[in-house]
Amino acid sequence: MLFKIENYAIRLSSRFLRRCFSKNFDVQPADVKEFVSHPNRNFLSTCQECEKCLKIAILGAPNAGKSTLINQLIKRTICPTSSKVHTTQAKADAVYSEGNTQLIFVDTPGVVSKSELKQYNLATSFQKDPKTSLQAADIIGVIQDSYNIFARNKINSNILQLLKDLDNEIPMILIFNKVDILKRKDILLHLITILAKSKNSLKFADVFMISALTGDGVDDLRTYLLDSAKPREWYYKRHVYSNQTCEDIIQQTVRAKLLDNLPQEIPYNMQVKLEHFDPSPDDSVSASVSVTCSTKRICGILLKFKGNRLRNIARTAEEELRHAFRTSVKLKINVQSAK
């Protein structure tokens, strides 16, 4: 009996994935294997010989705006974002399909050094994933925070080392982010001269100035990438927008909102787990997430202001998940203490 219930739950989840990650909502449900969002090189299209594809690795220092930019490029909030560093913990594919062209963006953790990895007790994915993403990339986007006066005049040394270690030459583009909050626009010309036109600079095929937050300049960047795609079979089916599971997306979205709403290092030590996921026949979703705090005192901080803080976290997470899944989402967050 339990086996039958589990199979039924899998079919429901698969049907939901198909409907919410597709531009067309009249698709008939099929076997669960059809919805697994892993690369599918055997996918046959009605116009297979016309298909084009491009894999883009996005690199940048922590909090440069990589995930926010990718969400704008694919027009869905698939990648978790927050105002704190190290929101993205592992690489993930975000997929955008338009016409006969598919763009695959690889969102990576902010590039860190070995000493930073040890100092902040970060997962090994912070060093391994950026390297892995470069090996399969057709083009590399280096995103630079143009508003950070301490770091904008030079490419992050960890990124420079990664790019110098490449065996083969992969086209690179330089992306200046946060130009909307830069009051003096002449600074951008100065940055281009230093980072893209000087004798010792990396060889960038093109330079873009964008605001990942407002979307300014993102359309031009997307068009450039679509035009750069190579004739090749698609990696993913048209309805797939990420290689992450719904569980991953929900958990990472809640974690990102905790980072945004809680002070200092507190949210980094919380454990987020999806307890319940229920896609309804009308395509709406209800989900329950548990947040485990290290102590009762930390629980009290999360439940402060008569629970208003927790309700705000749930509300903002719901909004992002609605934009990701393109359907109604009802989210409940339960708080518990590990001690």
Our Rg estimate from Cα atoms comes to 21 Å
Distance between the amino and carboxyl termini:
36 Å
**What overall form do the CA principal axes indicate?**
globular
Largest sheet: 7 strands, mixed
Strand and helix order: HEHEEHHEHEHEHEHEEHHE
Average predicted local confidence, pLDDT: 85
Structure description:
- The protein is of the alpha/beta class and 339 residues long.
- Residues 1-36 have low confidence and may be disordered.
- It has helices at residues 2-20, 66-74, 114-119, 125-135, 157-164, 186-196, 218-228, 246-261, 296-302, 308-325; strands at 52-60, 92-98, 101-107, 139-145, 172-177, 206-209, 230-231, 271-279, 285-293, 329-337.
- The protein is 34% helix and 20% strand.
- Strand 8 (271-279) and strand 9 form a beta hairpin.
- The protein starts with a helix and ends with a strand.
- It is globular.
Topology:
Layout: H1 2-20, E1 52-60, H2 66-74, E2 92-98, E3 101-107, H3 114-119, H4 125-135, E4 139-145, H5 157-164, E5 172-177, H6 186-196, E6 206-209, H7 218-228, E7 230-231, H8 246-261, E8 271-279, E9 285-293, H9 296-302, H10 308-325, E10 329-337
Parallel strand pairs: 1-3, 1-4, 4-5, 5-6, 9-10
Antiparallel strand pairs: 1-7, 2-3, 8-9
Helix pairs in contact: 8-10
Brief account:
The protein is an alpha/beta fold and 339 residues long.
Task: Give short descriptive properties of this protein.
7-stranded mixed β-sheet, single chain, 3-stranded mixed β-sheet, 10 helices, alpha/beta
